[in-house]
Amino acid sequence: MIDVQQANEKAVFSGALTRATITREFDKKYRQLVDHERMIIDLAKVSQIDTAGLAWILLLIELAASKNCDIKLVNLPDDLLKLAKLSAVDTLLPIENT
Q1: What are the backbone angles phi and psi of residue 88, rounded to the nearest 5°?
Q2: DSSP letter, residue 96
Q3: Taking each helix axis from N to C terminus, what angle separates 78-86 and 51-66, rounded to the nearest 10 degrees?
Q4: What would the pLDDT profile of 83-98 be if each residue is shown by its tens digit?
Q5: Domain tally, the chain
Q6: Hey, how many other C-beta atoms are within 10 angstroms of the C-beta on 24?
Q7: Which residue of 15, 77, 83, 85 lies most exposed, with the fewest beta carbons within 10 A?
Q8: Is residue 98, in this structure, part of any structural domain at all?
Q9: 40: CATH
């Protein structure tokens, strides 16, 4: 299960961001995160991520660019960083060091 707590321009994800949790309903609901000028995605509480989770994050980044939303990722789990490097997409992640 994945839970998202949003407050203003920050969204904190917790739980598993995987093929099993990224449903159509989840996607439809949380694409709207980039309808702001700026959005910080905090992934510190993500316990599990797979290629589907990485792909969804990349989709969110692409949507943000098309809507002129300044999106930043913070507190990325090691598994996500490793997966992004293995997939050669780590340079596409707008990581903000906190």
Answers
A1: 60, 35
A2: -
A3: 80
A4: 999 999 999 999 997 6
A5: 1
A6: 7
A7: 85
A8: no
A9: 3.30.750.24
